[in-house]
Amino acid sequence: MLAPPLLDALIDRTLEEDLAGGDLTTEACVDPDARAVGEAVARRPLVACGGPVFRRLFERLEPAAAFERLVEEGAAVPTGAVLWRVRAAARTLLSGERSALNLVQRMSGVATAARRYVEALPKGSTSRITDIRKTTPGLRALERYAVRVGGAHNHRDSLSSAVLIKDNHIVAAGGITVAIERARARAPHTTRIEVEVASLAELEQALAARADIVMLDNFTLADVHEAVRRVRALADGYRPLLEVSGGITLERIPELAAAGLDVISCGALTHSAPAADIALDLTL
Question: CATH second-level architecture of 4-118+273-283?
Answer without folding.
Answer: Alpha-Beta Complex (3.90)
